[in-house]
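hi! just following up on the protien thing from before. the input was this:
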Amino acid sequence: MGQPKKLVYSFVARGTVVLADHAEVSGNFASVAAQCLQKLPTNNNRFSYNCDGHTFNYHVHDGFTYCVVATESAGRQLPVGFIERVKEDFTKKYSSGKARTAAANDLKREYGPKLKDHMKYCDLHPEEIDKLAKVKAQVSEVKGVMMQNIEKAQDFKKQGTKIRQKMWWENMKIKLIAFGIIIALILLIVLTVCRDFNCW
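and the predicted 3d structure came back as:
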């Protein structure tokens, strides 16, 4: 017999309706995972809960919830990597809309074996899944940093525009004051010269 399985149960749900699931071992994982599913927020996010030596890992994305129950010894990256694989595969296969209207367990016969295959692959290749999950996490982190830098650059550009406008007004004020002084000097000279020469 091989090493014990680290991924023990998984499902894909739309809202609170489980469309397909697969259990590698017996237990009450399905009922506990379904109870947690009822309490999850609907916004796109990741959630993880610990219970009796297992982690219940969820990823809510575009109205669908991807879940895997793993032993605590599986760590964090393996469940995340599994969920990413399933999410990518499920989206590719069902993005046309079949999953949006399916009733509870309608996709179990069709997609349950795919969940089993993904679980088996991830259990047999944890190093590869860990590496992929780490790379995706790094890419996500770099993307976040780039977005922050773009926002800072846009703020800098806005500040630069404001400073340029302020400098333009300052420059214009100086030009208007100089123009006013020149006009006043010309008037003063004309009035002084014309008074003595009677220009009018």
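The chain has a mean pLDDT of 89.
The longest helix spans residues 126-197.
cheers
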